[in-house]
Amino acid sequence: MTDLVCFLEEPSAKEMLQAVLPKFLPPEIHTFFFIFEGKQDLEKQLVKKMSGWQKPDSFFLVLRDQDSGDCIQIKNQLITKAAAAKKENKTIIRIACHELESFYLGDLLAVEKGLSIKDISKNQNKKKFRQPDKIANASEELSKLTNKKYQKMAGSRAIAPNLRLDGSNYSKSFNHLVSGLKKLLK
């Protein structure tokens, strides 16, 4: 593999991946980002963009929020699109349950460090933060928890470099993203 091509529904996902990927991607792998204007735009253009990528040693990541949809149904639809582009064997599809911010709520120590908010990580032991993928309004919750200090782009830029990749994040969807990418590299 020489290229990892990421198809993302929002710019904040790129900010997160730009901080996380260099922690485990070998330097010889080049990363490219296609950012769409939301999930509908991603789904509408995915087959065309994926088919248009002609470098043979490339692999693909499709990352999108679950929001209020059915995770399995969303993933199956995206798998179908990867198959239509004839790239299904080179594609990893990951769904952020419910939103990208669930990744951050799963590692409140990263939020504490990134946003310089003292003692916010003490909240990790509260039931809802032990299962952040179940929080339907994760961005609102993160904004409330940080006293509105969290903003999508700046927050992703600040928090993502501090995210732990050792499986200790309470967001299972984040851990699946990291483990899936590591598996893809092998």
3D structure, described in words:
With 186 residues, the protein is α/β, with parallel strands linked by helices. The chain folds into two domains: 112 residues, 3-Layer(aba) Sandwich (Rossmann fold); 62 residues, no CATH class. 46% of the residues lie in helices and 14% in strands. The chain contains nine helices and four strands; from the N terminus they run E-H-E-H-E-H-E-H-H-H-H-H-H. Helix 1 links the parallel strand 1 and strand 2.
Features:
single chain, 186 residues, alpha/beta, Rossmann fold, 2 domains, 4-stranded parallel sheet, 9 helices
Describe the protein's topology.
Blueprint: E1 3-8, H1 11-20, E2 30-35, H2 39-52, E3 58-65, H3 71-84, E4 91-96, H4 101-105, H5 108-115, H6 127-130, H7 138-145, H8 152-159, H9 172-185
Parallel strand pairs: 1-2, 1-3, 3-4
